[in-house]
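Service request form, structural biology core

Requester: graduate student, group of Dr. S.
Request type: structure prediction, single chain
Budget code: on file
Notes: please return the result as structure tokens.

Sequence provided:
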Amino acid sequence: INRRMVERLSAIDSMKERKIVGENNAGYLEVRGNATADDSKVVSDENSDRKAIYELIAKQQSTSAEAVGRARARQIADRSKPGVLLQAADGSWYEKK
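Core staff response, request fulfilled:
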């Protein structure tokens, strides 16, 4: 899983820079702009891998995958570069400053 995620990273960063995707408050990528079929596949593949990782972590920590995803979303938001689209806890979207 990790290898696949690393291989997709440059494509995801490019989509973030072009405002095609953002990071939602559940720890997943979300299409926010005009995505091609290839872009959508990258997002789907990444989210599938994130879900698998969240489920593994949840099992280890005796919690839910949803809780792990929300915690990861906060980490991603903190570490994101300026200009990345992020979803706040209330569901609204903003561009990181």
